[in-house]
Specification:
It contains no helices and eleven strands. The protein has 124 residues and is mostly beta strands. The strands form two sheets. Strands 2, 4, 5, 6, 9, 10 and 11 form a seven-stranded mixed sheet that branches. Strands 1-3-8-7 form a four-stranded antiparallel sheet, with no helix packed on it. Helix content is 0%, strand content 48%. The protein is globular and about 45 Å long. The termini are far apart.
Length: 124
């Protein structure tokens, strides 16, 4: 089993920045694709970014150029640096872990392991 714990959420004004962290533990001997998602009230879970075992990152159009995903494998921590935040970025943010070395796509079904989420609120 794999456990994922997000932190770093909070409230921020439009244009501000936040960095989310996700500590992963358990059966993590193999480096795999990991990703960040979010879900706003009344909306489906949305893919944001994912990173494979070699550190190659992939971004969805809604966050490209504003968000950066990184993985500190030595410390079992996945990050999401967010800048130029907008009110529409308000959501619960989740990290997720796949089982394969390479990222095959943004679908949530590609990721069997999920954290509990952390709330991000962007408001003036």
């Amino acid at each position: 089993q794999v456990q994922l714990v997000e932190s770093g959420g909070g409230s921020v004004q439009p244009g501000g920045s936040l960095t989310l962290s996700c500590v992963y533990s358990g059966d993590i001997r193999k480096s795999v694709c990991m990703g960040w998602f979010r879900q706003a009230p009344g909306r489906e879970r949305e893919a944001l970014a994912r990173i494979d075992k070699d550190g190659d990152a992939f971004y969805e159009r809604s966050v490209k150029g504003r968000f950066t995903i990184s993985n500190d494998a030595a410390n079992n921590t996945l990050y999401l640096q967010m800048s130029n935040l907008r009110p529409e970025d308000t959501a619960i943010y989740y990290c997720a872990r796949g089982t394969g070395s390479w990222c095959h796509g943004p679908a949530p079904e590609e990721f069997p392991y999920w954290g509990q989420g952390t709330q991000v609120t962007v408001s003036s």
